[in-house]
Every structure is written in C-alpha cells, then in structure tokens.
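Please predict the structure of the following assembly.
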Amino acid sequence: MNAIVIGYGNTLRGDDAVGPLVAEAVAQMSWPQVQALAVHQLTPELAEAVAAADLAFFVDATAANEPFCARPIEPCAESVVLAHTGDPRALLALAMALYGRAPQAWWLTISAMQFEYGAELSPPAREGVAQAVGWIEGHLPELPSRVFFRPTSYSVE
Amino acid sequence: MPQRIVIDPVTRIEGHAKITIHLDDTGAVSEARFHVTEFRGFEQFCVGRPLWEMAGITSRICGICPVSHLLASAKAGDAILAVTIPPAAEKLRRMMNLAQIIQSHALSFFHLSAPDLLLGMESDPAARNLFGLLAADPELVRGGIRLRQFGQEVIEHLGGRKIHPAWAVPGGVRAPLAETGRAAIRERVSEARALALDALGRFGRMLEQHREEAAVFGNFPTLFLGLVGPDGAWEHYDGMLRFVDSTGAIVADGIAPSHYREWIGEAVEPWSYLKFPFFRPHGYPAGTYRVGPLARLNICSQIGTPLADAELRTFRDHANGAVTSSFFYHHARLIEILAAIERIELLLDDPDIASTRLRAKAGVNQLEGIGVSEAPRGTLFHHYQVDGDGLITAVNLLIATGQNNLAMNRAVAQIARHYVRGDRITDGMLNRVEAGIRAFDPCLSCSTHVAGAMPLEIGLVGPDGAVLDEVRR
C-alpha cells in the first residue's frame, strides 16, 4: 500500500503555511511508500498522483476557530477543483473520472489564526503541524521502523 | 432608481476580486468596476532582506507563476551585481520561462476558460466547470493536464522542485540540466506539440459560436506593451520594451527596461488595492495599455518558429491593425504554448546548454537594479534598491495583472453594457462579465492571497447602499 500526503498553502502567509510544512516534515521522515508533496494550491494535474495512491492525506489551514481535525472524505464532483480554494474532494473526483480510481482519503485541517506576510506560525498552528504529522503516522499502514516526529522550530522567513 | 450589482468574488480566476455594476434610473449600466479588495504588502515585507534571498522569496508569492518572479528577481540581481550571466545560464533560464508559459497558459485555457467556451456562456452553471467539461470532452481536459505536466516537468528537471525553484540566482543559475532531464524533455515534446495544435484547431471551431463575445469582450483601442527581440521578434525573457497602438503602429520602441519609469506611471484609486499603471506620455487614464499574450502577439514582427508563425498569421486575420478584442487572449495563449514548445525543442539542440559554466559571481556593484521578463500574463518588473551590503532598501513590483487593470475595468463596463439590462439579472449575463475578466487571466495571487471559500455573490444595491437583492452560487 502506498500513501500520498499533499500539504497546500502559501508559505509566505503565516499560518497558511501549515499544510506545506506538514508535507515537508513527512518528507523528512522518509517513510517507505509515502510520497509527500508541498504545493501552493490544488491543481488538476495532481489527480494523477492521487489516483496512483491507495491512501491520501490532504492538509490545509482553516480559518475556522476549531482544533485540529481529521475527517474522511469521498470524491465529490460538486466541489471547487481549481485555484485558491481547490477542494480535495474535487481532486478525488477528478482522479476517479480521469484514471478510474480514487484512494481512501482524509482531510486534515489545522487551525490558522494569522495570515500576515512572513510572520512565524502562531502557537496553535505550530501545535497543529505536530499533531497532523503524528496523526498521519498513526494512520499509515505498519511501517518497518517508527521515528516519532518531534516538532522543531517552524517559521516562515 | 439607480442600483448596484455586486459580483463578489469573481470565480475561476487566481485570487480574489469583486465586480460592481451600477445601474441608472432606466436600468441601463452606468458604470462597472473590477475591484481587488485585499491589501498588498509584499513590497514592504521585502525591505531589509538580503538581495540573494529575493529570488527565493519572490518566487513564493504565487503558486501559478513562481518562475516569473524567480526570473525577474534574478535579473534585477544581475543588474545589481553588474554582471553578464553565462550563455548557458541565460538559455536555461529561457527554457524554464517557456515551460512556465506552457503550464500557466494551459491552466487558464483548458481548465478555467474552456467551460465557458466549450459548454457555452449560458449553460447550466452547476455543470459549467471542469467536471462538466470532462463529461463533454474528456480529451480536452486530459490534454490540458498533459500540457501542464509537460511544463512542470521541464521546470522540475531544471529547478529540482515543481514549485518555487530557488534555482535562478543573481549571476546565473545554480545547476545545469542533466542529460537525463534533457532526454526526458525531448521525449515529450512531440506529444506536447500535438496537443497544442489540437487545441488550436478546437479553438478555431468554437470561435464561430462566440462571435458576439469576441466583439464585446474588452474590444476597444488601447496601447499594447511587451518585450521584443532585436529584430522585433516575439520575446519572453529579455530585449527592449515596445508600445504599439490599436492600429498596429509603433508608438515607442527600443526602450531599455531599466527606463520603465520614464514611460509608465502608476496611479491609485480608492476603490481598489491594485495599482493602475498607464503610459505616461498619454496621461491617466488615457494611457491605458494591455500586456500579456494578446499584447505580445500584437507588438512582435514574427515569432520565429514555423508552426507558431503560421498560427500568428491566422491570429492577425482577426483585425486589420492590432487585435483589440480581449477575447483573443485565449487564441494568443494557445499560440504561445505552441511557440514555447517549439523554442524548447530548439534549446534542447543547443550545445551551450550542456555547459557547466552557469554563474557569474560578484558583489554589490550597483545600488539599484531592474529585472524585467515576460510572465505568462504579461511584462513583469522587479525593481530593487539595496545598500552597500546588499540589503534591500526599496522594492517596486509592477505585475502584469496590475498593468491590465485599466483595461479590465473598461472590459467589465463594456460587457455589462452589452449584456446586462434592468433588474432582471440572469446567470448568463453575469457569467459573461466574469468570463471577460477571465480572458485576461488575472493572477491576484501576486498581490493578494486568501484561504477560504469562494462563492459567487451577486447583490443589488440601491442608491442609499441598501442591498435590495442577493444571490449566491
């Protein structure tokens, strides 16, 4: 079984960076059969990589005042598929439509409080990054060796 | 009673904006405006940064056109170092810019605008999207995705990452193109070329259904600006600035990009955070000009590759002088995809690109530098001032979408006046107003970014500011 982690957001806009930071943290783990992509936004060509995975994790910031949340999602062709507000459910639907398959998928949202240029992550966002990486690790199939994630310093230049 | 219609935000564009349409007492459109509503603070954010970080930082402004900022920034850095970069570095930068043009134009045409063009402006809004398009013409959607993948793979072979490759630096580039990458790109060129030609054929066939839109989608005389090569040929990376008017006559030519401020003024309006650049000799707002694919094809003498030049001749049949309808940005975009593919193929055969001499190293030799290149959406200026240690003291970014701002506002008004009548507002009317903006492919990611939902909101507002009616979709 292979998995894909897609973290999306703008790394220059404070807490909006949490998705890419989670993806980069996952990439550093070098977990076998886990691909991690840090992208600015969801775009149609990602459907191919999504369709090739058995398990997908999408990680985004949310301006809603809620704690870290992970929820299962299904393909939904009625969602926005492109640009700033690309919805991972639409990307799953696109994968299904184009390539005939979509993976089991989770949408992880991390509470984001500020979106100023270049500011460091807020404490809740920093905590959310660590939670998300830990949550992903806990939901991957059995890994040969576990290296537990420890949050270091997350900041945006 | 005068009324105001608000489209907020505009959908299927990169970023957030809204449109207001004011109706007079008779129900006719009296005024329409395209607003950018989020504050733009990027220039201030850069102050105090080391020059050498700027390419990496500015390439993170935008997820759709990171390469454009990367290259303009690196070129501003070249000017501050006062160096001529090695030939291989210039050619590799050119290749990356061409790839960027392909992937960005593919997103605009195939995925943002094709639903309007193929399914129809009046088609069911619930299906007027990528999935509706997929049901109607799956090969078109697949073709768009393959072209985007091609462009992004070229960028990845050069820069190592699909987004924000901090690969171009002041003085050159960090890494060569590996032979394996060169071979992989070459392998995909013929498919990409076939896809571009197929899309051009489709555009020609669908044009007949959109004659009315072509006539009123931002169809008015303006100037056009872009870079041209030494012989006036289509240019995307370097060269001199040229302005032509709507008859096709050259108004100003041979302008060194470093002199842009002598020719381009920047106005502001209280109702938008986006600047309003204008051609200084004609004043504001008479000096309206357009940039981007439409402008580049209007100002050039030829493209310089056989297939694209053949398409350029077809493009020029749209008008006697310059092609003035913004609807034909779509056509110009497809021709530029083809041109970029042909140019990449030529670069792959160029022995220079195998050189490992890629970077001129120097310290700060000038306290000011201006870098200009053609982003997919138009001419992009990065203007930096530094202190003796190379720390940024001032930044001015003149982005393509800003330069089209005056024309976009005129386009919105023209389309609204043609299609919007009284208080019976239909989806088809408003979609045409939005589609007129989409033709410019505005990228507000450069100046703004907001995470969150993006519904279309339409409000009817009376003269006292009260909302009379509101629709969301």
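Strands of chain A lie at 3-8, 34-39, 55-62, 69-73, 104-111. The interface with chain B takes residues 9-13, 16, 37-41, 43-45, 47-48, 60-63, 77-78, 80-85, 90, 93-94, 97-98, 112, 115-118, 157 of chain A (CB under 8 Å).
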